[in-house]
Amino acid sequence: MSLSEIFSVLSDDDSLKIIQMIVDHRDPKINDFESAKRYYTRLSKLKNSLIIKRKGKSYEITAFGSVIYDMIQTVKLAHDLHWKLQVIDAIGDRVPDVERQQIIESLIPDKSIRKTLIDTRIATLEPIKVD
Asked: Does position 125 have pLDDT exceeding 70, yes or no?
């Protein structure tokens, strides 16, 4: 399955709902969805993409699914912080890197997102090595 196919599976609210229910140890039921077809289609796509698997009469998240779930949580958090991220974008190169890092640390509560913002900035400042 290609990366774009995985994103396609994840772009559906019902698929995200199923993943969350499984992570919360609640088995998804047909009644939780608009129709049986939508329920079975999403379950099938999630199983085919190896995000969930059947275990007995219930479903569980796979190791790959756990990584995907963590990614989803990071995207949700980034979405919740979008205005703070826009502030960081607006600052751009207007302040020295030390001050920019302090601003990031004061605005962004999540250590992983802070690290990404700081590491990405450092990577863009480093000269590209040419052999």
From this structure: no
Phi, psi of 68 (to 5 degrees): -60, -45
Q: Which two tokens stand for residue 5?
A: 């196919």
Asked whether the beta carbons of 33 and 60 are under 8 A apart, the reply is no
Displacement of CA 120 from its chain's centroid (Å): 18
What own/partner pairs with CB < 8 Å and gap ≥ 24 does 81-85 have? 81/107, 81/108, 81/110, 81/113, 84/108, 85/117
Q: Please state whether the predicted TM-score (pTM) of the whole model is above 0.85.
A: no
For the chain, the straight-line distance linking the first and the last C-alpha, in angstroms and rounded, comes to 35
Q: Which tokens hold the place of 36?
A: 């049986």
Band of the pLDDT at 118, cuts 50, 70, 90? confident
Q: Give the max Cα distance, the chain.
A: 61
